């Protein structure tokens, strides 16, 4: 009466192939930090911060602070840009570590 079909194993195959827990972390990483002027120590507003290999991005607020959430595995590379400062890239290996980024003014 209980007859198993020859191709019944195909039903379980998508669960093996599409196990996303091996591709993405269980929850997104949140990277927090601030951007400062390396010469004056003042916080930089409207610095553009983004993860190079993804679409995650943020702007620093009037206190230089920013937050980015990502599903990408660490490490990630952050790129920081502002029209009056030199562009900078940093490697983030620990999302729990606060990122204090100092930008050099353009000459």
Mean pLDDT: 87
CATH class: Mainly Beta
Number of helices: 1
What is the H/E string?
HEEEEEEE
Going across the biggest sheet, name each strand in turn.
Answer: 3-2-5-6
Low-confidence stretches: none
The third-level CATH topology is Immunoglobulin-like
Overall number of strands: 7
- Radius of gyration over all CA atoms, rounded: 21 Å
Shape by Cα distribution: elongated
- Structural class by secondary-structure content: mainly beta
In terms of DSSP E residues, the strand content is: 35-45%
Helix share, percent: under 10%
Structural domain tally: 1
End-to-end Cα distance, whole Å, is: 83 Å
CATH architecture: Sandwich
Task: Describe the main β-sheet briefly.
Answer: 4 strands, antiparallel
Describe the fold and architecture.
The protein has a four-stranded antiparallel sheet, with no helix packed on it. The longest helix is centred in the first third of the chain and has 5 residues, at 13-17. It is mostly beta strands and 107 residues long. 5% of the residues lie in helices and 39% in strands. The protein has one domain (25-103): Immunoglobulin-like (Sandwich). The model has no long low-confidence stretch (mean pLDDT 87). It is elongated, with a radius of gyration of 21 Å.
Q: Which helices and strands, and how do they pair?
A:
Layout: H1 13-17, E1 29-37, E2 48-51, E3 57-59, E4 65-70, E5 76-82, E6 85-92, E7 99-103
Parallel strand pairs: 1-7
Antiparallel strand pairs: 1-4, 2-3, 2-5, 5-6
